[in-house]
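Consider a protein example.
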Amino acid sequence: MTMPTVALAAASAMISGAAVAADNNTLDTMVPIYELDPLDLDRLAEEDAIRDADGLPYRFAIPSESFISPGNDGLWDRNADGLLRWRMRIKCVGSPHINLGFEHWNMPESAELIVYSMDERSVRGPFNSLDNINEGQLWLPIVIGDDIMVSI
């Protein structure tokens, strides 16, 4: 059986820098949420049983193609150090974890990306210009939880 997750393809951002979740503030409640439909775990279990019977490989993720851009989505503000940052929440109720794939990744040297669960128990990053490999894509490790923050 598969442990369901959400694979989300998103666009990369080109500007700014931010510290880890430690400088959360009241603006967190204003950060827009990209909410995915909840997973139908019963249906997924049935599909996985069929895949298993057919000898197919285990499923890792339930993809959800999206286009999220700092130019059109999220919230721009300043962190506690006064640095410009961009943030966007992604939520999929009931998902044990979320992983992100950036199909257009080109982070400048002056910026970094951090992704963390809203309870701050799972943090990934920072990812920066040293990660500008793999033909302009970046696929992150899973973030445990069903509600995450993407911060640049």
Notes: Residues 1-23 have pLDDT under 50 and may be disordered. The first strand starts at residue 6 and ends at 11. The CA atoms of residues 106 and 132 lie 6 Å apart. The first helix runs from residue 41 to 53.
